Amino acid sequence: MKRIFIYLIAALMFAGCGESENKYVNYMLPIAKDYEFTAGEFETDNVFIAIEAPGVDCGIIKEQLAELFPQDGGEKAVTLQIKDKVEGIESPEGYRLEITPEQLSIEATDGAGLFYAVQSLIQLKGDGNSLPCCTITDEPEFGYRGMMLDVSRHFFGKEFVKKQIDAMAHFKMNRLHLHLTDAAGWRIEIKKYPRLTQFAAWRNPALWKEWWFGDRKYVEEGSEGAYGGYFTQEDIRELVAYAAERYITIIPEIEMPAHSEEVLTAYPELSCTHEPYKQADFCVGNEATFEFLQNVLDEVIELFPSEYIHIGGDEAGKNSWPHCPLCQKRMKEENLKGVDELQSYLIQRIEKYLNSKGKQIIGWDEILDGGLAPNATVMSWRGTEGGITAAESGHKAIMTPGQFCYLDSYQDAPPTEPMAFGPYMPLEKVYSYNPTDGLGEQQAAMIYGIQGNLWVEYVPTGDMVEYMLYPRILAIAEIGWSNPAQRCYNEFKERAIVAVNGLRAKGYNAFDLANEHGQRSEAATTLNHIAVGKKVSYADGAEYNEKYNAGGDSALTDGVRGGWTYTDSKWQGFIRRGGFDVTIDLESEREIKRISADFMQMPMPEVWLPGEVTISVSNDDVTFTQIAKIVNDTPTDVPMVIRNFGWEGSCTARYIRYHAAKGAKGGWLFTDEIVVE
Ligand code: ACM
After folding, report:
1. pTM over 0.85
2. How far apart are alpha carbons 180 and 296 in whole angstroms?
C-alpha cells in the first residue's frame, strides 16, 4: 500500500500539487502518513463499541466515541484494541484504522495511538453521519509537537487554556509549553514565596504596551484597577490532568537568570544591587538565588509530571554581573572566564539539581553560550543554528526558529491586520519549514521536534490569541506529524480552510484563511523603468547595511520590488547616520516624468519612514537642481505602512540624486527600488 500512496503523491505533485483525489483527504489535518480510501461508507448509527485496552484510561476516548456513534448497542462493530505489535507502526502514538461498510477497527500499541485514531475519525466524519471506507496506517514524524503560550505579558486563565488544549489534541499536538514567568507578571502560585502572586502578578494598566512603555510598576493583588492573575496550584493540577487525558504534556517555563524583573522587585535581595525595579537578572554570585530557584522548582516539580522543565536562559543582559562583588567572587572561585560562563554555571547547577530530582532541562539556545549543560535539550529560536549545534554535539533540539515559528508576526498583508510584533509570516511561510533540512542522519535523529510560539506583547485578548494561532499552528502540527515527502502547500491550504471552518464553528476566532489578501502585489512582478540596470552610487556615510543588502549595489535598480517584510532580501536597509543618499547614472540625458521610491514603517523593529526626502537632477554629476522636497507627515504610531515618496513633472537629466534623511526616531530606513519613468 505504501507504494500506491507514493505513486499517488507523485501524481499529485505532477498535477501541480493542488487537487485532492478524494474529498475526505481535505478533512485530514495533519495528513496521515499512509492512507487509501476505497468505495463505500460506514454509517455511524447502529453500532456497538468494544474496547480492549487493559490499563489504559479511555475516559475521553469513550466520550468522543459516544459523540461519533450516538447509538451504541447496535450491530456493526467498532473495535479499539491495544496490541503488542501493530504492523507498520513503530511509535506508541501510531495507529492503524480500517473501515469497511460493516465494521471499523482501530489498533495501536498504546492509548495515545487509540486517541489519535479517534481524532482522525472525528475529522473524517465532519458534520456527516458516515465515515469513508479506508485503511490508514499513521504515526508521527516527530515525538515533540509543541505549542508555546506566553501567559505573562497578558494572562489567560484556566478555561481558555483548556479550550486551546482541545484544539491541540484534535490536531495531534502533544506538548504545551507555558511561559509562566516574565517581567510582565509571575503566573504560578508558589506557596513559599507569596509575594510572587500577591504583587508580582499584577500591574496597572492592563495592556502590556502601555505598561512596558510606561512606568513598569507592579501593584498589590486586589488593588484598584489591578490587572493580571495567576494559576493557583489547584488550577495547575486541573490543567495538567486535563491535558494528560488528551495526551498532552504541559511543560512549565520558569525563567532564569533573566526576564526576571518581577521576581527581583518582589524579592530584591536576589539581584546584584538589591534595588527593586532596577534589575532583570538574578545575582549568580549569591547563594540565596539558588535557594530561591530550587525552592520554586521543588514546588513546580510536584505540580508537573513532565520529564522536562524549561529554565528559560534567553536574553540575559548580564550587565550587573561584572560590577557585583559576589558574582566576581563566584567567577574567581569557579575559574569562570566571562559572564557567559557565569550564566552557564547557573544553568549547569540548576540542571544538576533537576536531574537529581529525575527531571531534564530545556533551555532557549543562549544556554549554548559559555558551555552547554551536559544533558540539556536546546530550544532553537534565534534561527536554526543553535538547534543544529546542539544536535551536532549529541544534544536533543526542539526547533522553533523565529523566522518560521513565531506566531506573533503578521499573518496577512500588514496594513489589513492588527498590530503585530514580527514581520509578515503567512501560513505558507510557516508550512515551508523543515526541521531537519540540511542535516545528516545522525544530527536529524537528535531533532526532537518542532514548536510554534505565541508571545503576547501585542496580543491582549483570548480572541486575539486564537486569531494569531489558527491556522498557523496547524502548519506546525502537520510538520510535526506528517511525512515531509507529502508536503504540498496548495493542498494543505485547502485542508487548513476546512479546519478553520471547523474551528470557527466551534467558537474559535480563527483567521479567515479563505479570504487571505496575501503577498504585496508589487512583489509578484518585475518592473521595467528607465533606471533598470543603471549604476547606483552611495554617498559616504549612507551605505546600506550588509545584512540587508538585497543583492548589493544593483538592488535599487533591478526592477525587483519587496514584499510585506523587510526581511525578504528585497528591501535594502540603511542604519547609518547619512540615511539613504544615492545617485543614479542614466548613462545619457533622458526625459523624465516621475521619480519615486517606497519606504516601509514598522515600529517594533524601529523601521521608520524618512523624515524628509529631496530629489535633485543633474546633467554633469556636479551641479544638481532640487526638483522635490517631501516632508513625511505619517505619524509614528501607524503600525505598519509602506509609503511612496516621489516627484511627478517633466525634466531632462542624466543623473538623479535621491536623498532620504532619517526622521526624529532614527532607526532604520528600508526601500526596495528607485523607479524612474
Ligand atoms: C525568546 O524569544 N526570547 C525566546
Report:
1. yes
2. 12
Does residue 672 sit in helix, strand or coil?
A: strand
For 554, phi then psi, to 5°, come to -95, 0
Catalytic residue among 315, 512, 553, 677: 315
Catalytic choice (154, 170, 179, 259):
259
406: CB partners within 8 A, 6+ apart: 381, 400, 421, 422, 425, 453, 455
Q: With contact defined as beta carbons under 8 Å apart, do 451 and 476 qualify? A: yes
User: Minimal CA–CA distance to 509: which of 470, 538, 451?
Assistant: 470
What's domain 34-138's superfamily in CATH? Chitobiase/beta-hexosaminidase domain 2-like (3.30.379.10)
Give the dihedral sign, CA 342/357/378/402.
negative
- Rounded CA-CA distance 594/618 in Å is 15
Are 272 and 326 spatial neighbours (Cβ–Cβ below 8 Å)? yes
Could you tell me the distance, in angstroms and rounded to a whole number, from the CA of residue 477 to the centre of ligand 1? 20
pLDDT in tens, 568-597: 999 999 999 999 999 999 999 999 999 999
In what helix (H) or strand (E) does residue 229 lie, and over which residues does it extend?
none
- pLDDT tens-digit series, residues 479-495: 999 999 989 999 999 99
Distance CA 243, CA 311 (A): 21
Half-sphere exposure of 99 (CA within 13 A, CB side): 23
Fold of 248-375: TIM Barrel (3.20.20)
Q: Are 161 and 437 in contact (CB under 8 A)?
A: no
Contact (Cβ atoms closer than 8 angstroms) between residue 446 and residue 391: yes
Best probe residue, ligand 1, of 178, 179, 256, 314 (max atoms within 8 Å of C-beta): 314
- In this structure, CATH architecture of domain 521-676: Sandwich (2.60)
Domain ranges across the chain:
34-138, 248-375, 521-676
Which cell is 205 given? 494598566
Q: Which residues pair with 379 in a beta bridge?
A: 364, 398
User: Which ligand 1 atom lies nearest to the CA of residue 381?
Assistant: 4
Residues 41, 95 contacting (CB under 8 angstroms):
no
Which residue among 182, 262, 466, 516 is the active-site one? 182
Question: For the segment 372-396, what is each residue's pLDDT rounded down to a tens digit?
Answer: 999 999 999 999 999 999 999 999 9
Distance of CA 384 from the midpoint of ligand 1 (Å) = 13
